[in-house]
Design a protein that fits this description.
This protein is an alpha/beta fold. The chain is about 30% helix and about 20% strand. It has seven helices and six strands, in the order ααβαβαβαβααββ. A six-stranded mixed beta sheet has the order 2-1-3-4-6-5, with helices on both faces. Strand 3, helix 5 and strand 4 form a beta-alpha-beta unit. Helix 2 packs across helix 3. It is globular, with a radius of gyration of 16 Å. The mean pLDDT is about 90.
């Protein structure tokens, strides 16, 4: 699949470029929680892995996190982010460069080999995840909106995702149930911490 402009304006993403307000509220919501539990401060290095056009990076910068970076495989999306003068990582992010990494709605777009490559070559103390999941053993996504996206190629249960992450040293610390991001039957939203 070519993650070009058409992708970001079709299927589940018809209004994607107009979602900045949503991402700003999410940034406030999550950073407030992470700050309260001492996992984040204004100097923390943050990566949005799968940043698309950089809406979360832009929001993080606006609320005072000046070490927020984005990474994506879509050249078109990164072009949009760079046009906004956002900090974009060229090439795969380096191991240990980021304290907190957001992976929101990205892992389901990756095959297992690419996810394993990411987890082996990259390390972050904190992962903030949102992943659509299966409730039928990995046959189909629970939510119809998740089933409609042909780029959703990795369908796992919450337990399967937890076990995969555990193999690479990440344990679930907290399921997220905030105003803007929440754990449901069809979506796993959580904070995972790296074992020391």
């Amino acid at each position: 699949m070519n993650f070009d402009e058409e992708y970001f304006t079709s299927i589940n993403y018809t209004d994607y470029l107009d979602r900045y307000d949503r991402y700003e509220k999410l940034a406030v919501d999550v950073t407030d929680l992470l700050s309260k539990i001492n996992l984040l401060d204004k100097n923390t290095n943050i990566l949005d892995y799968g940043c698309a056009v950089g809406l979360l990076v832009e929001a993080l910068e606006k609320i005072g996190y000046n070490n927020a970076y984005g990474y994506d495989i879509s050249e078109w999306a990164l072009g949009v982010a760079k046009d906004k003068n956002l900090k974009i990582v060229d090439g795969l992010p380096n191991k240990d460069d980021y304290d907190v990494t957001f992976c929101l709605d990205v892992l389901e777009h990756m095959n297992d080999a690419d996810i394993i490559n990411f987890l082996e070559k990259f390390s972050s103390n904190v992962l903030v995840l949102r992943i659509p999941v299966s409730t039928d053993g990995g046959k189909t996504f629970h939510l119809s909106i998740s089933r409609r996206d042909p780029t959703h190629i990795n369908c796992k249960t919450k337990d399967s995702w937890k076990n995969l992450l555990k193999e690479y040293g990440y344990k679930t610390f907290l399921n997220l149930n905030l105003y803007t991001i929440y754990d449901t039957k069809g979506v796993w939203s959580c904070i995972c911490l790296k074992d020391c």
